[in-house]
Design a protein that fits this description.
This protein is mostly helical. It has helices at residues 2-11, 14-34, 36-62. Keywords: Endoplasmic reticulum, Membrane, Transmembrane, Transmembrane helix.
Length: 67
């Protein structure tokens, strides 16, 4: 994964990255400020779903197979 990220960063000029990333960063902060409660609730739901999924996978991997 890190090699893919490094190859992407090497292929894109720093100026282009700055021109794209700066407006996205400010837009993200603005959108979070406007919809803070909804985004926080969504992130809580996602985290809860992730924890449940992790527990299900852990239980399936931990149980010995019968047969």
């Amino acid at each position: 994964m890190s090699l893919i990220l490094l190859s992407f960063l090497g292929a894109v000029s720093l100026h282009s990255l700055f021109v794209v990333a700066l407006p996205i960063a400010f837009t993200a902060f603005y959108m979070y400020e406007k919809n803070e409660e909804e985004i926080d609730a969504l992130m809580t739901d996602i985290r809860s779903f992730g924890c449940k999924l992790k527990a299900v996978i852990s239980n399936k991997l931990a149980k010995p197979k019968k047969g």
